[in-house]
What we know:
Blueprint: H1 2-9, H2 15-27, E1 32-35, E2 43-45, H3 47-50, H4 56-71, H5 76-101, E3 110-113, H6 115-135, H7 139-158, H8 166-173, H9 175-209, H10 211-226, H11 229-235, H12 237-246, H13 260-284, H14 288-296, H15 301-334, H16 344-353, H17 356-385
Antiparallel strand pairs: 1-2, 1-3
Amino acid sequence: xxxxxRIALRLDKVGVPAALLLFGAIVLLPFATAKAxxxxxxxxxxxxxxxxxGMGPVLLAxxxxxxxxxxxxxxxTLRVGVALAGLVVLLLAxxxxxxxxxxxxxxxxxxxxxSGFWTALAAFALLFTDALTRLxxxxxxxxxxxxxxxxxxxxxLATGHFDGLSVMREYAVRAGTFWSExxxxxxxxxxxxxxxxxxxxxxxxxxWRIQTLRAPALAVLNVVQTVPSIAxxxxxxVPLGWVALHVPGASALGIRGIGAAPALVALVLYSMxxxxxxxxxxxxxxxEAARDAATGLGMTRRQRLVGVELPLALPVILAGIRIVLxxxxxxxxxxxxxxxxxxxxxxxxxxxxxxxxxxxxGALPTVALAFASATVLDAAIDFAxxxxxxxxx
Length: 393
């Protein structure tokens, strides 16, 4: 009985379900799907059938070993290493599948990751996230880890390891369009964030000074936030179309009923509530002692705002900006429905053509962009939360 208790104590509450999920994904679920072309139903293949005879058992043993280690109560640093190793092995394995499953005589043959790959990817991501939460790395370490992950992915892409997969075949046909739509997606997401910060922070400061303005302003912004994104995009088509027709020079500036203009306006409107609310919350959290000290030093109201209140409120303001950016990266995908462009172009083309890999061509970079942006802003929040002496203000 005592021996069983000692063994049980070595197991991890998160690691055991993740390991079981990994075992099930690798052993029971199909790993890759082979299709004669991009839209017909495919044939599911298990892990060993998807990989070369010499490599399959080796990679399977490595994945099983990583899953077994993940179930144990290891140190957080070691758990991060195990999860990352498992993710790398998984990516190496899926990149080898097209060489086995795609018929050389059929140039239209496609190989896609199946449910087993995605389930295993989610399980390793769960192990990695749990270990990272326990490790609590500093902002520099998180940025270094992000850079390392992006480097590994970039290296695998640069070497052509994934070129045989269907999603990369879709990319090869649309490489030029992909980068142009990607630039539009970034411009919409980051541009709307910049505009909302430029408008929202001064407005929040004004609402902080004029208390009677706060409740009505937040009420209006809350109403805007409740309108579904596609509905708001549609509602802006008529007024912006009228502006384009009747205001001289508006059309030349790109203001039209459809396209990037209504998408940008809608994203700015959606962004205002988090920016204004967090700025107000940050200003409210500034200690009265800090304000009294600034006043005692002879600072004017403006100097106190710029030199004391806004710097102390900056972590909370950055948290609102983080919400805005991640939200807008996702919402910019919907902008493709009104001609706004972005990665949503591939998502909706894929849905219309029943081409899952074309959907992934738009969805995967959107997720990666949101993840990278959130990590960078999280690090910025931590930097802003540290006082010159290294303690929280």
